[in-house]
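Sequence dictates fold. Below is an illustrative record:

_____
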Amino acid sequence: MKINVVRHPLIEHKLSMMRDKDTNCKDFRQLLKEISLLMAYEVTRDLPLEDTIIETPMTTFTGKMLGGRSIGVVPILRAGLGMVDGVMELVPSAKIGHIGCYRDPDTHQPVEYYCKLPIDVDQRQIIVVDPMLATGGSAAMAIDFIKKRGVTDIKFMCLVAAPEGVMTLNNAHPDVPIFAAALDERLNEQAYIIPGLGDAGDRLFGTK
């Protein structure tokens, strides 16, 4: 099982606040944004740099600036939307795509209903974001859509992952690194993550 758990005191503190059932949707939304920003710092650690000549107020200097592929952020709707602002604060030049799929309440299998990506998506490093990696079906399906458009450089970023979801995504897309703030215990009979933080979409948008 391959997963990168991003460990940092601020992430663990904020995630514990998100897990609290009494945290309201306003605070939940803000915490999700803040954790996403902190995680994006780690997810983008291997971005390539190139030498650039710049003029400081004192002299000429060879600095380092981002080179190579640009970034694209693709949230899985709905809950993935809550992670976009945090990543964009760190990488404001990133383009944003959207993939919509939901989990069938009876089969627990993902159903796709929307996909809109930047026209140059195949020229970008794509970060797929979704707070929860539960069964892994939605993440695997979303990455299928992206790969069909020629993308070869993809990472998946979530807050909380279940072992079952990690295995599913590892098996479906072994080339895609997974970054999570926490690896939780398991899925329950309704395919919710335990201990988890509930339905991230409902808690984010106040729909339950």
In short: Helices lie at 9-19, 25-43, 81-90, 137-148, 163-172, 200-205. The radius of gyration is 18 Å. The CA atoms of residues 82 and 163 lie 23 Å apart.
